[in-house]
Amino acid sequence: MTKKDTCEIYCFDEVKVNSIQTELLKEDTNSVSLLFKALADENRTKITYSLCQEDELCVCDIANIIGATVATTSHHLRTLHKQGIVKFRKEGKLAFYSLDDDHIKQLMFIALEHKKEGKENG
What we know:
The protein is mainly α. It has helices at 14-26, 29-39, 42-53, 59-66, 70-82, 102-120; strands at 57-58, 86-91, 94-99. It has one domain (30-120): Winged helix-like DNA-binding domain superfamily/Winged helix DNA-binding domain (Arc Repressor Mutant, subunit A, Orthogonal Bundle). A three-stranded antiparallel beta sheet has the order 1-3-2. It is elongated and about 65 Å long.
């Protein structure tokens, strides 16, 4: 950090701070951080993106898409499932995964758009 990107004196707006702290107590920010932590792994991001492109994919399809073993892919899918990012259903001996809801797709597309804007803006 340089002096340009920090306050040179310590002071704060007590009203704003107290208001935001009160609001933070009402929100489950820990769950949100766990959601983003689950998506922070590149393979899990690729899985999530793949499920944005197709409504449903089996574990074998996903493993081939991300270039991983079925075991590794299953591990990633369990993590995503625990965080409420994906859901699954069994059909005979196959396990099919899909996004838990449309909010996940929105998060993915917003993040991708944000990165594109960042590159365009230098």
